[in-house]
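Worked example
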Amino acid sequence: MSSGGASLTPRNPSGSSSKVNGSGSGGDRPKSHRKRSSSIVVVQKIEQSQEELLDQAAGFNANADWVNHKGAWVIHVVLILLGKILLDVVPGMRQDASWTIVNLGYIAISYLMFHHVTGTPFESNAGAYDQLTLWEQIDEGAQYTPAKKWLTSVPIGVFLISTHYTKYNLGLFALNFGATFFVLLPKLPLLHRLRFRLFSSGGPPGGISGTNSPYPSRPNTPAVPY
């Protein structure tokens, strides 16, 4: 006690006075979470329910089973040769240009048919294949089957032939190689049932489960009283 009757302020052993509502620790500050911003590329994995798997096993998929029938493999060669003959009829058509057009045409048709269109034109499967492409329906999704090996080797063979007849021209080679790589990429088992979507903004897209980021990029803006 001092002579004037004023009480002394208790001090910490370190010599500094204690702070009740100090802002140094920030331990009691609630953390905020912001939603993920828009992404350029979003990868979606196609998952199927148990009911869809049972429907696939119970029914006959006429949309994909024709690939294993006799003559289904030969038709690719027939269409390629037919397209080549039709192009050769055009006056002034060169061999390098005709084989490049055949290669690009076959790749465009095969990609649209096997990797772009989903579902089946039939209603006998109760919508079990609505989310799957024709490539994913072949052999019930099994990899490295004879049909899939054949469908993979055909664009490679057409690419090699077109490269030979273009006399390894750099521009035509890059065009044919890029197109062939584009159609072979979705055939890889690593990309089975994956969907790539560009410029997806906002929250998680349909079918993709997303969570907020646990680490806020910046603290909340303090409220300004009016």
In short: Strands lie at 39-45, 194-200.
